[in-house]
Amino acid sequence: MKNIYKPTEAIIEGIITESPNIKTFVLRPKVPFEFKTGQFIELTLPGIGEAPFTPSSDPNIKDKMDITIMKAGEITSLLHGIQPNTPVGIRGPYGLGYPLDKFTGKDILIVGGGVGLAPLRSLLFALFGSMDKYNKVVLRYGSRTANDIIYKGLIPEWAKLDKVNMMVTVDVGDPSWSGNVGLVTTILKDLPVDLNNAAVIVCGPPIMMKFVTLKLLDLGFKPPDIYLSMEKSMSCGLGKCGHCRIGPYYVCKDGPVFTYEQLKDLHDIWD
Amino acid sequence: MIKIFYIKDKDLPFLINSLCADYKVFSPLIKEIEGEKTDYSYNRLFKGDIPRFSAYRAVEPLKTFFTSPLEKVSGYFKEGVNFREPEKIVIFGVKSCDIQGHKVQDFVFLEGQEKDSLYRARRENTVLISGDCTDFKNVCHCLAWEVLPHPTVGFDLNLSPLNDGYIVESGSDRGEAFIQRYKDYFVPAKETQVLARKAKRESFIERLRKHLLPQGLVSKAEVQRLMKDGYSADTWQKFMLTCVECAGCNLICDTCHCFLLSDEKDRDEFSRLKGWDCCQYTNFSRVAGGANPLKTRTQRLRNRFIKKFDFFIDNMGIPACCGCGRCIEVCPGKIDIREVLKDVKDKVSRNK
Ligand code: SF4
Ligand code: SF4
Ligand code: FES
Prior knowledge:
Chain A has helices at residues 74-80, 100-103, 117-128, 154-160, 206-219, 251-254, 260-263, and strands at residues 8-19, 22-29, 40-45, 49-53, 65-70, 87-94, 107-113, 136-143, 164-170, 180-181, 198-203, 226-229, 245-246, 249-250, 257-259. By secondary structure, chain A is α/β, with parallel strands linked by helices. In chain A, the strands form 3 sheets. Chain A has a 7-stranded mixed β-sheet with strand order 10-9-8-7-11-12-15, sandwiched between helices. A 6-stranded antiparallel β-sheet of chain A has the order 4-3-6-1-2-5, covered by helices on one side. Chain A has a two-stranded antiparallel ribbon with strand order 13-14.
């Protein structure tokens, strides 16, 4: 009898500090655990509670999984305090993830904000694994300050890849930063992307997603081509507990990735 | 083939006695309140107890038998923490609105990709013996949602009082087997008895209709449209004023299914708990970072209605309201679901 509420055990093998308030936890599940890029898991801090996270690692790696976590609430703060070799619980994967098949043959524009780059890193790994299927990948990433940029080592490597075009900006500049300064929307001009053959994937804080979406529509991108990662309060991840409703959908089961076409007529989607 | 039987009044206690040997039996018993108003509440029946046929639904929703305000649903990281097979129970005196409301619980916990096996085991171990309503409460409005005051599906056995006994209809294989097993108590119903049941049902529906007609209730056909067009109506703000956020309306509702998982540690044992949650609570939709899309009572009241009359119609094809009126009785703020809907309709038609 399968118990849908029961987590299985995983060990935190390593902890990487990405920024002052963001860490990546490397998990090794005790039983094999597969996920599709963009799907999420429920991570249990034993005896304390659960929270949903989208893995940031390559979905083709089956024995390990990275979860990049920003300190935001009670559980994430406690997670930031744990040591390697701590056992944690996992349930999932849940949700539909990114529809990679729909991206085939397209110019893929990825817009990330802050810790929103975490799920996108998993997507990028998945895309880079079969770049022959896609025309190009254009990445636009915005972070609050230079110090808040995550995956610092990876970004320059990605920029060197064939068919990849990327730009990073920070909201607030400082002497250590010689790149773009301004909100991510300011680097969404002159995009090397064919409007009529594009898939745009956006992930970041709700306010950033809102303004990026408005900007994209302004630029002429079409609602069915804009994919948004929605964030709502979640408990079960199973489409049962009722917390994550947005219009006729549950974010956990019908998302977390939605096209703007699915959302555009719903009320208060950015709240 | 529908099999219809008859059981005599005087045989009912014997049947219940036999049942008590194999099942935990629950039945609504009268609890008199303030002399006039009669309420029924589920109680355990023991050998020798005499069941009473209830005129209308009990105070408690049916969900109390299948989910809990708070219970352990899993231990983890240790093998062997598993659940005993749930007890076999019989619930006697279930009404049509209970069954309708419970369709929503079944949809949530038994449908979709992930199924709640504890819920399923409880459901499978429960025999539902329903009954026609012979009277109604002031708040009853099943007919508004096209739910008849006698069960037509979803029961194992249904009892319709007639003369000195009950017409018994089986509504499932289990009901069928049940009649076989306790066949001494049942005789096949005569055609005249079945016709008499029909007449009795029709006259009761007529009585209920007369009670409801002057209320001018919102209908099933128009309610979803009203949720869409009335999203910005001031109804929500107006009715919210007396809401004290007790969540009684959620807790007593047979369709409200929301829950929250939480974790506990007792020495080195980890437990996962599942407890009812309520969208009328301030933090229902608050995320870890602090954002809360249902910050205000206005938003939360509207959420309750949208979930019932928009979301569930989209996802399940029926509104998540069975017209039992429990939320009306329970609300200390005197917020009446019927009045809220009528007000939305009023505001929407005025804006046209
Ligand atoms: S709402 Fe209808 S079915 Fe329910 S108790 Fe009242 S009359 Fe009976
Ligand atoms: S029962 Fe009434 S007062 Fe209590 S939460 Fe519901 S609407 Fe508010
Ligand atoms: S998280 Fe429980 S329904 Fe989506």
